[in-house]
Amino acid sequence: MVAAATPHDVIARRRREQAEAIDTARGFVAALPAELDLRAAVVIGSIVRGDFHKWSDIDVVVVAADLPSDAFEPTMALGTRPPGLPCIRRPTPHLPP
Length: 97
Hints:
Blueprint: H1 7-30, E1 38-44, H2 46-49, E2 59-64, H3 72-79
C-alpha cells in the first residue's frame, strides 16, 4: 500500500511544478528576437498565484521598446514560439494608445 502524501510533500511537488513552468517561461523569453529590445518579462496568472493545474497556460507579459506599430505585427513577432515549446494560443499584443 502506498502511503498518502503529506501536506509537506504536496507543497514541495507544487513548488517544483511552479519552478518548471517559470523555467519554461524563461526559455521562451530568452528565445525572443533581439530586435524587440526587451525591457522586461513577467509571469502572471495562475502560475504565480499557485492555483495552476495540469492544463494551465503560462501567461507572460513582455515589455519591449521596439514592438511594431501595426497591431498585427506584434502578434507575429511574439507568436513565433521557440522550438520545443508548446503553444496552444497566440499571444495578445497590448499597445499604448
